[in-house]
Amino acid sequence: MEVISVRIHGRGKAYYFDPDNLDLQKGDEVIVETTQGMDLGFCTGSIVDLEEEKINYELKPILRKATQEDMNNFAENIKKERAAFDLAKKKIDEYQLEMNLVDVECMLDNQKIIFYFTADGRIDFRNLVKDLAAIYRTRIELRQIGVRDKARITGGLGICGRELCCCSFLQDFNPVSIKMAKQQSLAMNPAKISGACGRLLCCLQYEHDAYVDAYKRMPNPGQIVITPDGEGKVTSVNLLRETARVLVTIDGETETKTFEAKELSQPGKNKCHCPMREDNGED
Questions:
Q1: Residue 88 lies in a domain
Q2: Most buried one in 66, 125, 199, 233, CB count within 10 A?
């Protein structure tokens, strides 16, 4: 089935929509009907064929391409959102609420204004909602989000120097565990393995399967193995090159040499097979 990805309001997660026979390209502005109401979105790619099983939500059609009037309304709503953000911040300070306002989104049809915030626990914001509703005379919704969603909304650059994955191409947040960082021999330094959201880097999951596969063929540090130069003890391994540094004794002298994994075997076995350690630690 033909689909096209659209980022609602130009930020946050991109969703698939039915192009409904419209000629659409990346960057086109379109009007879509969401669960929150009618809104403007930006196409993040071209029309593609996708298996229906890969979409786990109701696929809605794109209503039409955005007109100049729609773009003018969108620009006015952006100004309204900025003003609403400043006002809500003052009200939050006034009521001394333990919440961090992240973003404000005004629906294109002005039927609803959504305030996104983060907080450590539940917040009683009933008085805040009453004040905002009295001022804007429309439906007000306060939505609590997680730190990962906050990073996706606010955007930024990762430690790699590129735009955050969650803001560019990443559709869903997959589980990431400290085990993945250990398997990749990364330093357990939170500043090195954490993203802008403060959680473990999503990219730790990208090459996880490759490291799992490499681990099956590699010995563990400290393991006794048989090398072409005799028996030795593994001091370190390089998973990407699939090589191991082994301490061996040659002509009475001890030295460390590098061997490929296929050259090594366990005593009494034809080849190394070292099951991975089953330590957990999902983030």
A1: yes
A2: 125
Beta strands 139-144 and 112-118 are parallel
Q: Which of 36, 11, 273, 32 minimizes the C-alpha distance to 164? A: 11
Which of 14, 43, 66 marks a domain boundary? 66
Q: Which pTM does this prediction carry?
A: 0.74
As a whole number of angstroms, the distance between CA 133 and CA 110 comes to 13
Q: Residue type at 207?
A: E
Is residue 257 within 8 A of residue 229, CB to CB? The reply is yes
**Residue 37: CB partners within 8 Å, gap ≥ 6?**
107, 108, 109, 111, 112
DSSP E strand stretches across the chain = 2-8, 14-17, 29-34, 37-43, 48-49, 62-65, 100-106, 112-118, 139-144, 224-227, 230-238, 243-250, 253-260
Please say if the pLDDT value at position 29 is more than 80: yes
**HSE-CB of 273 using CA atoms within 13 angstroms:** 4
Could you tell me if 128 and 95 are in contact, meaning their C-beta atoms sit under 8 angstroms apart? Answer: yes
Do residues 106 and 42 share a domain? no
What whole-number distance in Å separates Cα of residue 79 and Cα of residue 261?
Answer: 61
Segment 101-114, tens digit of pLDDT: 999 999 988 889 99
Q: What is d(CA 202, CA 169) in angstroms, rounded to the nearest whole number?
A: 12
